[in-house]
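Re: [ENG-882] Designed sequences occasionally contain unexpected residues at chain ends

Forwarding the minimal case from QA. C-alpha cells:
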C-alpha cells in the first residue's frame, strides 16, 4: 500500500455525524429527538424502571383499557415517553366514544380507542381520568365534537382562548373551562387567559378522579 493511501482515522463523533456518506442535511427534528432522548433516559427512564415493579400490582394490561366502559369527557393520558416526544399526550372521549386529540400531525384526530392506543409504543403507560361532576364531562365531550374542526394549527400558544392554534392539553382544558367553568389547571395566571397548560399538570388536577392505570 502506498504511503498516504491508508484510511484516515481519528474522526470524532461530531465529525462522523456531519460527514456521513449520504451527506444528507441533518434534520432539526432528529437532533431534537436525540437530545430529548438522552435527557429522558438520564432523568426519566431510570426513575420509571425503579417504579415499574411497584406499579405491577396496580397497573392493568392494555387490553383491560380497551374493555373498559369509558364515558364522554373521560381523559386518557400518556406520561412522558418517546412516542409522546417526551412531553406527554392526552385525548378526551367524545359523545360518540371516539378519542379526540390535538396532534402535531393532525392537527386534530378523532380516533377509535383501539386505533388511538396503536399510536403508542410498547412500555407506555396510560392513566384514565374522569371529572367528579358527571354533567361537566358530558358538556366537555359535546364541546370537543362541536369545535375540533376549528383547530387549524398545532401550536404551543399562550392564548388560552384561541381554538385555532392549539395542543392536546390546552384543547381539553378549554373543553371543561368553556362549558362548565372547571379550571383543570388551577393556576393564577389562567385568570389572565395566558399560559401553557402542561399535560402533567392536568394529571394533578383536584377536579379529576383516577379510574385506572394501564401498561402497554
Amino acid at each position: 500500500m502506498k504511503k498516504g493511501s491508508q484510511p484516515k482515522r481519528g474522526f470524532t463523533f461530531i465529525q462522523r455525524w456531519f460527514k456521513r456518506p449520504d451527506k444528507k442535511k441533518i434534520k432539526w427534528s432528529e437532533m431534537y429527538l436525540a437530545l430529548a432522548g438522552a435527557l429522558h433516559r438520564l432523568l426519566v427512564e431510570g426513575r420509571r424502571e425503579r417504579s415499574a415493579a411497584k406499579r405491577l400490582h396496580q397497573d392493568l394490561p392494555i387490553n383491560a383499557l380497551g374493555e373498559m366502559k369509558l364515558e364522554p369527557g373521560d381523559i386518557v393520558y400518556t406520561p412522558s415517553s418517546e412516542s409522546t416526544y417526551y412531553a406527554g399526550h392526552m385525548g378526551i372521549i367524545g359523545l360518540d366514544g371516539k378519542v379526540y386529540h390535538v396532534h402535531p400531525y393532525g392537527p386534530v384526530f378523532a380516533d377509535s380507542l383501539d386505533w388511538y392506543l396503536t399510536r403508542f409504543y410498547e412500555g407506555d403507560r396510560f392513566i384514565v381520568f374522569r371529572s367528579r361532576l358527571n354533567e361537566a364531562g358530558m358538556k366537555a365531550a359535546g364541546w370537543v365534537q362541536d369545535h375540533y374542526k376549528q383547530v387549524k394549527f398545532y401550536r404551543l400558544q399562550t392564548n388560552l382562548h384561541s381554538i385555532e392554534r392549539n395542543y392536546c392539553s390546552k384543547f381539553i382544558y378549554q373543553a371543561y373551562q368553556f362549558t362548565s367553568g372547571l379550571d383543570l389547571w388551577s393556576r393564577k395566571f389562567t385568570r389572565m387567559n395566558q399560559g401553557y397548560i402542561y399535560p402533567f399538570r392536568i394529571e394533578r388536577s383536584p377536579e379529576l378522579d383516577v379510574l385506572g392505570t394501564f401498561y402497554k
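QA comment: On inspection the terminal residues look reasonable. The CA atoms of residues 80 and 88 lie 4 Å apart. Proposing we downgrade this to a documentation issue.
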